[in-house]
């Protein structure tokens, strides 16, 4: 190998001048490559001439719709349509609407029978909304008055076509019949009249003895009141003792309603109050052996014996024994009596 053929050792690169900034030694970036192929350099072959497709352009019609935005520029206000001049006549602004339309001046012209007078007539008539409101208000006022003064109930509900006489002067009997019949009929005039009974014992025993005493009270009322016609119903209430089972005694009340003009006579018994056997033994001991009405009962009432045993007034012994007063028992039985009587009146009216 000749001296000229010896390999040359590459020279070390000349260090760059230290200017104090490393980026100063970096060469500037070269131009980014362009990958877009020109039509004439697609390949190494001859240049390809681009083919231009001829598109058939249809002539636009003058009536073609132009673009219209979905939301108009003046959002919230009606605008004139840009579709065509003819269509713009159908879109009007609120200011262009007429102030009133003759067809809408009267509700009755649009909806026959729905005018103000027709509505008022239906509202005020029986069963109408105003009628029901008035009845509800009247009921509320009556309830308030009777709560403040319970005696006003008799005054507010008295009257009407129903007039009833109770064969007794005891308030517990008269007020019970009055409350029951006024509750069923709405309005009723109920009065009492003294009606003693001497046909049976002071304390009847058995329903037969009680019925006999009630019939005598009814007859006494009609005989002592000459102006009392047979068309006026009379009610008698008689308390009695009943043995439902051996040594099982109860005190009950028999209610009898009589109206001779319609041939109506209704009988109904109240709920019973249990009586201890010791009370019956006391009644038997207090009744004389020669008592005239010993066959129909005792000469002493059960109320006097039970009141002495319970140490309460004789009118309150039922409540002291069971928690239910005699008046409550009579009101419940009288309501059943009034309901039955009302049905019988309806049947008699239908037959005539």
Automatic annotation (TrEMBL):
Arranged from A to Z, the UniProt key words for this protein are:
Golgi apparatus
Listed GO cellular component terms? Golgi apparatus
Q: Where is the composition biased (Polar residues)?
A: 16-25, 57-67, 87-99
Locate the Non-canonical purine NTP phosphatase/PRRC1 domain: which residues?
A: 168-259
Under the heading InterPro entries, the entry gives: ITPase-like_fam, NTPase/PRRC1, PRRC1
Q: Name one GO molecular function term.
A: protein kinase A regulatory subunit binding
Q: Where is this region: Disordered?
A: 1-25, 55-108
Record family assignment: Belongs to the PRRC1 family.
Q: What is this protein called?
A: Protein PRRC1-like
Q: Please report the organism this UniProt entry assigns to the protein.
A: Galleria mellonella (Greater wax moth)
């Amino acid at each position: 190998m000749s001296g000229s053929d010896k390999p040359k050792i590459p020279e070390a690169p000349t260090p760059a001048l230290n200017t104090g900034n490393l980026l100063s030694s970096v060469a500037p970036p070269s131009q980014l490559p362009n990958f877009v192929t020109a039509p004439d350099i697609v390949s190494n072959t001859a240049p390809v001439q681009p083919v231009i497709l001829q598109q058939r352009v249809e002539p636009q019609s003058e009536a073609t719709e132009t673009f219209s935005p979905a939301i108009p520029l003046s959002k919230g206000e009606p605008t004139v349509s840009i579709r065509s001049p003819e269509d713009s006549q159908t879109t009007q602004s609120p200011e262009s609407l007429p102030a009133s339309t003759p067809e809408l001046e009267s509700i009755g012209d649009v909806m026959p029978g729905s005018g103000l007078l027709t509505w008022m007539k239906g509202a005020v008539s029986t069963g109408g909304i105003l009628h029901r409101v008035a009845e509800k208000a009247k009921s509320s006022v009556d309830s308030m008055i009777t709560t403040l003064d319970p005696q006003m109930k008799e005054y507010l509900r008295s009257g009407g076509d129903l007039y009833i006489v109770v064969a007794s002067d005891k308030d517990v009997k008269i007020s019970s019949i009055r409350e029951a019949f006024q509750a069923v009929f709405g309005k009723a005039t109920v009065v009492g009249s003294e009606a003693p009974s001497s046909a049976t014992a002071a304390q009847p025993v058995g329903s037969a003895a009680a019925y006999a005493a009630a019939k005598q009270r009814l007859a006494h009322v009609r005989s002592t009141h000459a102006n009392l016609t047979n068309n006026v119903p009379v009610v008698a209430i008689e308390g009695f003792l009943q043995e439902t089972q051996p040594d099982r005694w109860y005190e009950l009340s028999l209610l009898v309603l009589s109206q001779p003009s319609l041939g109506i006579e209704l009988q109904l018994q109240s709920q019973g109050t249990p009586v201890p056997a010791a009370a019956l033994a006391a009644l038997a001991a207090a009744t004389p052996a020669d008592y005239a009405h010993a066959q129909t009962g005792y000469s002493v009432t059960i109320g006097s014996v039970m009141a002495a045993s319970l140490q309460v007034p004789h009118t309150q012994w039922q409540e002291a024994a069971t928690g239910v007063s005699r008046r409550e028992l009579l009101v419940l039985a009288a309501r059943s009596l009034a309901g039955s009587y009302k049905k019988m009146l309806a049947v008699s009216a239908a037959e005539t």
